[in-house]
TrEMBL record:
Name of the protein in its database record: Cysteine dioxygenase family protein
Keyword entries, A-Z: Dioxygenase, Iron, Metal-binding, Oxidoreductase
Lineage: superkingdom: Bacteria
Lineage, broadest ranks: Bacteria, Bacillati, Actinomycetota, Actinomycetes, Micromonosporales
GO molecular function: dioxygenase activity
Pfam families linked: CDO_I
Family matches, as PANTHER family: CYSTEINE DIOXYGENASE (PTHR12918), CYSTEINE DIOXYGENASE TYPE 1 (PTHR12918:SF1)
Length: 143
């Protein structure tokens, strides 16, 4: 799946201008396609915008179309009161592809660059009815 997505990330006409529009207050999700157990969305990030720490309903393959996405992955500590433990941190730039799958999909993503970032996400679930691929958000009690 990653190789197929990567082959399209350099296309200048992959997304319409509307599908590359951000939101001033939060990252923006544009549904592109959903059917038979998978979905494709474009996420648009203005500088500094980020997700909460979260996990997903299904596997995901992500390709950066423009700009760069920063990602911090986490694991849950093994105590009676689960705590988040930061593991690897990466910067994915235009053309980079990565993937994750439950249960190892706990992370936070943000635009740490100076310009707009746009990424394509292919999820192994039809998330169109739910509106999001996020299964659970981990709040301050987990930090």
């Amino acid at each position: 799946m990653g190789e197929r997505l990567a082959a399209h990330l350099g296309a200048t006409d992959l997304l319409t201008p509307q599908q590359r529009e951000g939101h001033p207050d939060r990252y923006r999700q544009h549904f592109l396609h959903a059917e038979r157990g998978f979905s494709v969305v474009a996420l648009v990030w203005l500088p500094g915008q980020r997700t909460e720490i979260h996990d997903h309903l299904a596997w995901c393959v992500t390709g950066v179309y423009r700009g760069e996405e920063h990602e911090q992955r986490f694991s849950l500590g093994s105590s009676d009161i689960p705590a988040l433990v930061a593991t690897e941190q990466t910067v994915n730039r235009a053309g980079d592809v990565c993937g994750l799958a439950p249960p190892g999909d706990l992370h936070r993503v943000w635009n740490g660059g100076v310009g707009k970032a746009v990424s394509l996400h292919v999820y192994g679930a039809d998330i169109s009815a739910r509106g999001s691929s996020i299964r659970r958000v981990y709040g301050p009690a987990h930090r």
